[in-house]
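Feature request disguised as a bug: please show the residue count (455) next to Equilibrative nucleoside transporter 2 in the output. Example input:
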Amino acid sequence: MARGDAPQDSYHLVGISFFTLGLGTLLPWNFFITAIPYFQGRLAGANSTAGTLSTNHTGPADAFNFNNWVTLLSQLPLLLFTLLNSFLYQHIPEAVRILGSLLAILLLFTLTAVLVKVDMSPGPFFSITMASIWFINSFSAVLQGSLFGQLGTLPSTYSTLFLSGQGLAGIFAALAMLLSMASGMDAQTSALGYFITPCVGILMSIMCYLSLSHLEFARYYLAKKPSQAQAHELETKAELLQADEKNGIPNSPQKAALTLDLDPEKELEMEPEEPQKPGKPVLVVFQKIWLTALCLVLVFTVTLSVFPAITAMVTSSTSPGKWSQFFNPICCFLLFNVMDWLGRSLTSYFLWPDKNSRLLPLLVCLRFLFVPLFMLCHVPERSRLPILFPQDAYFITFMLLFAVSNGYLVSLTMCLAPRQVLLHEREVAGALMTFFLALGLSCGASLSFLFKALL
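Example output, currently without the count:
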């Protein structure tokens, strides 16, 4: 069938399916970090199922360093499976990777929802929760990489829809939290409803994936042999790069690799291709993009070192009431996700500084100022540092700038990286940037333990 005779996506069902799959891939991480107050409440008292979704006025103690461990054990699987990608993809069928990962995530999230009703002492509850977080994020890493492999054979608009679904996952989790809190139900029932929500989302993702084999449009593209898919990618990935620059590039290693491919319009701007010494393409590419890669590492190092480990501990300085109850879900999680998405979207209007500017490292390094700023906000549980910024307005202002700068600088670095290498080097550049992105996430999660200890 010629390309001009390709079937149509009736009722946009394939687009809706991939949007839902994109949403489902990042729901686990976002639902776990948004529910930090619930887990802290469960870990604060023995044999209690009364963990609440909201922080109280003084803020629950971060027993077991839960904030730090949930961040670290969410990001380490991304780094690990980034390194294992080639082995997994060559030896495990695609359908097994995708459907198996979705079913495993659904099972583990169901376990998390069931535990809401189970009386359990803090130690075993912490161990089970940490194991669930590790395995859920491991399966999520495999799932994302496998789905991006499928998207490579589809028109680039479907990759954009998938990325949009992922970008909305954080906002969706924050809104689910607020609705559960505002429902008026008791703490246990509210928490149960909250954790059932991602189970429904994952179940919908499974149904969407199974439906693809029954849709002619999906069968036409997904059934292509590798040689056909490679030819089609030459056309679609250039469009994808432009779409990512307009819509922003979400923050996961698998998403990063997609932006580092072909851009025929820029080919004439690249220097003439030079022969490379055998065995040294990685070193040659790294020498060209090392500064951009370092900037990417530093952006995520700063972000994950305080979000959510420190920011989730900040409480309102006002008297107890509705505002203090909703303060952290709104001003930490919802505000971060909305402004981060806005920051990524800014690259559709301008790309500044450009790839040759030394201002980019300066802007990235300035973000380290957010570490002491957040640590000096209104965090009641502290023993060393004073509270210099007690008013809520300080935290809100810091979070606005923190989230926008994170989204913009991540998107900017991922847009600039392909322009710094030759056309035939972009596959290697993509692999390198993918690794350094995961490295930045893991470094930030590890540093969060130190910053928490300094409070």
